[in-house]
Predict the structure.
Amino acid sequence: MSVLSLIIKREYKARVRNKSFLIMTFLSPLILVGMVFLITYLTQLNSDTKRTIVIVDDSGLFEAEFTNTDQTTYIDLSVQGLENAKEIAEKEDYYGLIHIPSDREGLTSSITFYGKETPSFGLVESIEKRIEKKLTDQTLIDKGVDLVVIENSKKNIDLAIENYSGEKSSKMSNWIKAAFGGAAGYLLMMFIIIYGNMVMRSVIEEKTNRIIEVIISSVKPFQLMLGKILGTTMAGITQFTIWVILGGVLMVVLQVVFDIDPSTTSGAVNSEAQAIASDPDKLTEIFTEISKLPLLQLVFGFLIYFIGGYFLYSSIYAAIGAAVDNETDTQQFMLPIIMPLMLAIYVGFFAVIDNPHGTVATVFSIIPLTSPIVMLMRIPFEVPAWQLALSVTLLIASFIFTVWFGSKIYRVGILMYGKKPTYRELFKWLKY
Amino acid sequence: MNSLLVADTVSKQFGNFTALNGVSIAVPQGSIFGLLGPNGAGKTTLIRIINQITMPDTGSVTLDGAPLEQHHIRDIGYMPEERGLYKSMKVGEQVLYLAQLKGLSKAEAQKRAKHWFDKLDIGAWWNKKIEELSKGQAQKIQFVVTVMHNPKLLIFDEPFSGFDPINANLIKDEILQLRDEGATVIFSTHRMESVEELCDHIALIHKSNKILDGEINTIKRQYRNNTFDIGVEVDESAFAKAETDLKSKFQVTPAQFKSLGDELKLRIELGDKGSPNELLKQLQSYGQVTHFTEVIPSVNDIFIQTVNESI
C-alpha cells in the first residue's frame, strides 16, 4: 500500500473514531432539528396568547372595521365614554384601548392607544392600516369618488424577460440562481471552517504528541500534509453526508409525529415559497428555470471550486497548525483565513445577487482567496468563459503556491517547539 | 573497514545561525558510533540531515556508497530525542502503521511485531492505548517501532533518557544484540559517560564543528599522557621525604581512589621523564606498592582538552 494511502487511512480512522467526532456527527442533526421545532413551537405558543382590546369610537365611523380574530377580541365600549372605558379596561386587565375622537379632520394624529405596556409593532401597524384604509375610502366617497371605479382601474404589471436571441426568462430565474449560488457558497464556507480547523488540530496534535519526528523520518512532510488534508476531508464528507441524511429523516419524522410545519416560521420568503408550491404553473416554471441553468458548468464549477477552494484553505490551516504549539496560539494567524472568507460571503450575498456581472463581483470572483465562493455564486448567472478560465488558472496556481508555501512552513514548523512564532519568523522559515 | 554512512563536509545554516560547519564523519559498518557534544552543538541537525528531515546547504551524505535518497529511510531506524506516539491510538495498530510507513507489508509487520512483543514480554499491551501506558512502557514501544523494520543503520538520539536503569540495561542489551546481528548504531548524546563504554568510534562536535573523531582506543592512546595513579605504603618517618622527592621530580597532584589503608596516594604525570617501569622501581624503593594504574582519559576529559586547545 502506498505511503499516502496509509496516512489517509489512519487519519480517517483517527477522526472517525474520535469520540467527540462521533457525538457531534449524531448529535448535531438532533440538536439542529430540535432547535427548529422548539422555535416553531415557541413562536406558535407566543402568538397563541389571546388579548382583548377596547374600542371607544366617538366618530362612529369604524364600528365595522374591528372584527375579531383568533388572537384579538375587540369590545366596543363607545357608549361608556372614554374615561369610564379606560377604568373598565384597566380593571379587567384588557390589553389596551383605542380611542378615536369625533373630530374627523384632526383624526390623522389624534387617535390614541392606551395600554399597560407598549403594544407590539405588528399590532400598531395593523391598527394603523385599518384606520388609514377606512379613512381614505371615506374621504374619497365624501368627495364623490366611486370606489368601484378605482378598484377596477388598478393594473398589475408582469414584465416578460427575454434575451436578444429570444430565450425567455423570468424573475423567478434570478431567485433560483441566487439560491443555488448562495447555497453552494455558504456550504463551501462552512466546510472550510469546520474541516480546515480539524486539519489544523490534527497537525497540532502530532506536534504535541511529539510523534512528528518519527513520522517524517519515514515520509516526506509534503506527503504527510497531503494525507492529513485528504483523510480529514473524507471524514468530513462522511460526517456531512450523515448530517444531511439524518437531518432529513428526523425532519420528516418530527413533522409527521408532531404535525408541526417549521416552514411557517420564517416569514416572507417561505410564504412566497408556499405560494409557489401551491401554484402548479409556478412550479413548472421553477423546473423549466432549473433545467435552463448551465447545469454542466454548474456541476463542474462546483467540483473545481469546492475542491480547489477547500484545499487552498486547508493547506493554510495545516501550515498554521505546524507553526504553533497549541490551539490558543492560532488566533493571531486566523485573520488571513477568516477575512477573505467573510469578504467572499458578503461580496457574494450583496454584490453578486445585486449585479452578478458588476465590477466588484467580477474582480472578487477572480482573486484566488475569494474566488471559490464568489465564483460559485456567479456561475448560475452564466460567467464569460475567459473569466472562468482566468479564475480557475489563478486558483490552481495559488493552490500549488500555498501547498508549497504551506509545506515549507510545515517542514520547519513541525520541528519547532516552545516558541510562539511571529509572521516575520514564518517568512524566515521559507528560506531555510 | 568500509563505512556504511559517510557525511562529507556537511554545512547547514538557519538564518544567521550556523548549525553545522563543514562536518565530515564516517561510520564504519557494524560499529557503534558515538556522536558526542554538548547541547546545541549540532548533533540533532546532523541526524536530521541523515534522516532527510532537513537538507544540508552544502556537502553530501552517502549510505552504502550511494547518495541519500527517499528510499533510504527504510534502511534507517531513528529514535528521536523527542519521543512520541499517537496517544489515543492503540499500541498494536500504531506499531503496524509505523512499520508499514517504513515499507513493510502488513503481514510482515504483524509477524515482526509479534516477535518483538514476545521478546520484550509486552504482548499484553497490544490493545491498550498509548495514553494508558506509563512513560517507560511507551518508551519500549518506541524502541520496537525504531527497530522493527530491521534497519541497517540505527540512530538513537539521547538513547537512555527516560528509561529507568533496568529498562535502560534491557535496551542496551537489545541494541548490542542488533549490532552483533549486523546493524550499525549511532548514539548521539551530550552525556558522554553514558555511552562511552559502548562506543567503538566517536566524533566530538562542538559549536557546529567536528573537533575530533576516530576509533575510541586510538583517540585515547593519542590523549594518554603517561599519567599514573599510584599508592605506596610508606613508613611514617619516610612519608614526607618520599612525597617531596616525587614532587620535585614529576608533576604531582593528589589522587582520588579508594583504598583500605592510608598510604601515599598520588597522581603522577610522568610525561617524558622516564618510563613507567622506572617509576615503579622508584616507588618500590619507598615501600610496598599497592596501586599502580594508568589514567586513561575519559571522553569527557578529551573533549574538554580538545575544546581548550582549539580556542
